[in-house]
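Worked Example 4.2. Read the sequence first, then its structure tokens.
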Amino acid sequence: MGKSSYGIDSDAVSNIAREISDVVELGVQLGVVVGGGNIFRGFEANMRGMDRTSADYMGMLATVINSLALQSALEQLEVVTRVQSAIEMNKIAEPFIQRRALRHLEKGRIVIFAGGTGNPYFTTDTAASLRAIEIKADVILKATKVNGVYDKDPVKHTDAKMFENITCNEVLTKHLKVMDATAISLCRENDLPIVVFNLQKAGNIKRVICGESIGTIVRG
């Protein structure tokens, strides 16, 4: 959304694309999962009375819109990109096929995973964990609006404490809002670390990948 209250802000998309482009130049293989909350939030619609299954599918379609916007911004920077969707829509995206995704990554292409898991009742956090496991990723980079994982909401509480390191079990038992419980459990069971960091600070994606101590590391 950038500074807007709704929809897609072209400047925000361009900034993210430039950050990703800088990482590609390092020779890093990168898969991207994009949410759809700037367009439609299925859970919130469900709370207002909409059927949960329909609301979640609408949210998945929103992630496809965002993925196509990011793909366009990356290709303007001459970064070769493929969008793979969990919901088949052959006119605009490839279906998600694990071996094909791995092949794209081996060729240096960015792969954007759209459509969540393709199933209602699962978040894009779970989709990110699932796809990361499927492509044998070394780490999940959870790009967010705050600097890391806190013991309470840092926007509402000035005395909120940020963790440098925390375990998946602690995240679950403390009910910390890092990723949903299913996503955290998947990462724990597959020994997949998560780095939570602030996307709004320019250059942070590259810094994290280069090993700088930024944000919070969540381990099994």
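Now turn to a second chain, presented in exactly the same format:
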Amino acid sequence: MFARGEFRGEKEATVAKSGGRSVGTRKRFWVDPRFAIGLGLVIAGVAGTAFVVTTSDTSEEVFTTRGPLAVGDVIVEEDLVRSSVRVGAAERLYLVPGDVPEGGLVVTRAVAAGELVPASAVGTTTGQEFTTVVVPVRERLAASVTAGATVDLWASPQLDGGVFGPPVVIVPSASVVRLLEPSGIVVDETSAAVEVLVPKYRIARVLEAIANDDALSLVPVSLPVKG
């Protein structure tokens, strides 16, 4: 049997060894409900923001040019750069991965370096649907008729007596490949020769007009507007 004083002394010694804390007692962890609610709202806000950003990202991969594309160039995917841009419903207006066949595409309208490649500026390879032809033009060319310009090719049939009939469009929206410099001892400044890219199915009509010595003219499809 221990005396009351001895028991009290042992208890005090035990408390002292435990750093002043009674052995066998545990501190309960208490969480303020307002803190839990606030933390939940923060987590929900972050998750909601991430969801909105993810779902609102409408970027699509489209092709841009590595360098300028000239009319008549044949391009393959290696000539283009994949760029992620937001085009929305206009995506179908530009070349996207999968649009370029193994044989490549022919450029039918000039495209500047770094620009998105319009689907309307390319066609299947030259040997299949497009080809170039040199057209003799009697009239002076407009200043806007340069390489890469889009023009309508008009023809006026030659009639008896040296007169010409009403002009008609024989190739709409042809693309100018290059202007050929006049050659020879005598140069007629009122005439020119232009190489144009035209659909293959219209070649027969163009060659017929040239063979019949029809009056051919190139008219720009659209003129630049000066602001």
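Notes for the reader: DSSP finds four helices and ten strands in the chain. The first helix runs from residue 4 to 17.
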